[in-house]
Amino acid sequence: MAPTLGKRKREVANLSNKSPRISSDEREETELDAQEIFRRHFEAQFQPLPIIPKPKTVVEELDDEQDEQSDWDGISDGDENVVQVVEHTDTQLRISAMSKEELKAFMTSKPPSSNPGQSLIRDKPGLVEDDDPSEAANLKKDLALQRLLAESHLLESSKNPTLNGTNRHKATELRLQALGSKMSILKQEKMPMSHRRGIIAKQTEKEEKRRREARENGIILEKAKMKKNTDGKRDRGVGGPGIGKFSGGTLNLSKKDIFNIEGPRRSSSTRGGRGGGRGRGKRGR
Amino acid sequence: MAAPAPEYLRFTTHKSLTHRLVLSTLTGRPVHISQIRSSSPTNPGLAPHEISFLRLLDSITNGSVMQISYTGTTLTYIPGLITGSVSTGGGDVVRCVLPETCRRGVSWFLLPLCMLAPFSKAPINVRFEGDGVITSATETGDVSVDTVRTAILPLYEAFGIIGSKLELRILQRSCAGVGGKGGGGVVELRFGSQVRLPKTLHMNRSPGRVKRIRGVAYSTGVSASNSARMINAARGVLNPLVPDIHVASQYDQAPLVGDKGSAGGKKRTGVGFGLSLIAECSSEGVIYSADVPAPSQGGVTPEDIGKRCAYQLLEMVSQGGCITRVGAPTVLTLMAMGSEDVGREEI
């Protein structure tokens, strides 16, 4: 049943399609003529163009396609009266965007107040109108620009390209440092020693691995930061012994401490160095 | 009461039972209601939700006497004092457990309770729970708790009742269960503001124009995209008329009901969705509301619900007046309880 039906439809379609195809052929011819004219003009000015064989196959394919289309037309003209309505609603549309504050105010357990506009929506300090010529607005914009320049590298991180969350904290840290803060707000001050050790060990391990891999691959890295030698004077507090280590009720003096107290030992002292010196001095006199 | 035999006001049928009982309590007149569903061959007498309401009245009043005839078709009620929720031990909240057979939304209880609450001795805190609490709107004509909170409770402010002391906490949402019966929600009403004499109301001005439209789209136990679809459809109708439309979408899990010990074990109930819209007018205190739930047997698309709700809201607006049909009993009762000044109200 189906093939006969299809055949009939195709004929009908061909009949119906005849006139447009003719018109399209004519258009093609006119286009060809135009190309011919251009070609002749070009050849008159330059050298003759190589002749490319016309791609016949494309036209045939086109014909086939048209036939297929006509097939479809044939099927659909069977029941013309039924109009199929397809309603497509996009659920991805932007739905009511209640601001967070408004939503909070509306969805509390209390009845919503009749005029929430005044108290709930704070006027945002960051919003400056573009065409505000006043000095204050200019200063604000200037500050915003400075900050953008100083902190724009935070926005480059692929993980979080907004100035939210971690990046916001980092930005605050940068600003504090610019104002002269010594302590980092990102560094945790108090934590168990084992955690701290673990963190430091991990950091050094990472750095070492990075350097090793770079060395193996022949990449030259920046110079390793020299560890600051904390060999200077330890703060010993007030009232304690100025030397040695006090533990278990005893003051332990290391050899180094004793050496420090005694001062440099002179080998000449056994040989009467002082006297000798004096003597030498006398001799000099 | 040692007073002479009380004069009963006599009523028949169960029509507006809650309002009759509330007015009786407020005025102190005993009532006698007869022929309650006396013609019904299958369920004569008081329905489960009406019994629950009587229990609730009993727990927030002191000295009230109720007599129900053997068949439940006759009720005699001698009101007592409205004490609020101090008398109960164990917290300041009166628990009101609704049975599974309840077909009315919890707003059927809330609205009359709110009418009594301003005249109570102590704050009224009631928690509705049990397998029969339906927080959504129902097909029996009750509004959703969202409408109660956003459209009815603000009406009290005009009577000198402090709005910030009223609270309606929706601890668990639920739609009507299978066959429109039962839910499993938990709702807590806290009415912490009492007045002796409500202020005189003057609301005979023009209601003004609709300023903004707010609403809540709730879906319980079904996909949250239903909310978005309802909101979209409603906005499609309303957006050309009012630009300021914000509808919050609320998704909750369906409540678990039943015991582990019972045959079926625990099961989820009260699945469904619905939309509640309110339109605030430029005139102070004028709020129109509309409420459409999905029927408990299902088969309606969220788009239909959204559209119907929007059209219902438009119909409410076209009816005009300062008070809608839902809020009228509340406002009229409070006006009647006010001082001798003449309050005015346009309905």
Quaternary status of these chains? heterodimer
Beta-strand portion of chain B reads 25-35%
First-residue to last-residue Cα separation of chain B: 40 Å
* CATH second-level architecture of the domain at 202-259 and 268-319 in chain B: 2-Layer Sandwich
Structure description:
With 285 residues, chain A is mainly α. Among the domains of chain A are: 2-75, no CATH class; 159-188, no CATH class; 189-219. Helices cover 54% and strands 2% of the residues of chain A. A two-stranded antiparallel ribbon of chain A has the order 1-2. In chain A, α1 (2-45) packs antiparallel against α2 (56-76). The longest helix of chain A has 44 residues, at 2-45. The radius of gyration of chain A is 45 Å and the shape is elongated. In chain B, a hairpin with a 6-residue loop joins β4 (65-68) and β5 (75-78). Chain B is globular and about 65 Å long. With 347 residues, chain B is α/β, with parallel strands linked by helices. Chain B has helices spanning 17-27, 48-60, 107-116, 145-152, 225-238, 302-319, 328-336, and strands spanning 9-12, 31-34, 61-62, 65-68, 75-78, 81-82, 94-97, 124-129, 166-172, 186-191, 202-203, 210-220, 245-252, 256-257, 267-268, 272-281, 287-293, 344-345. Among the domains of chain B are: 8-82; 202-259 and 268-319, RNA 3'-terminal phosphate cyclase, insert domain (Dihydrodipicolinate Reductase, domain 2, 2-Layer Sandwich), CATH 3.30.360.20. Chain B starts with 8 loop residues before the first strand and ends with a strand. Chain B contains 7 helices and 18 strands. Chain B: Keywords: Nucleus, Ribosome biogenesis.
Give the topology, please.
The complex is a heterodimer of chains A (285) and B (347).
Chain A: H1 2-45, H2 56-76, H3 100-106, H4 117-120, H5 135-151, H6 166-178, H7 193-216, E1 245-247, E2 250-252, H8 255-262, H9 267-270, H10 273-284
Antiparallel strand pairs in A: 1-2
Helix pairs in contact in A: 1-2
Chain B: E1 9-12, H1 17-27, E2 31-34, H2 48-60, E3 61-62, E4 65-68, E5 75-78, E6 81-82, E7 94-97, H3 107-116, E8 124-129, H4 145-152, E9 166-172, E10 186-191, E11 202-203, E12 210-220, H5 225-238, E13 245-252, E14 256-257, E15 267-268, E16 272-281, E17 287-293, H6 302-319, H7 328-336, E18 344-345
Helix pairs in contact in B: 1-3, 5-6
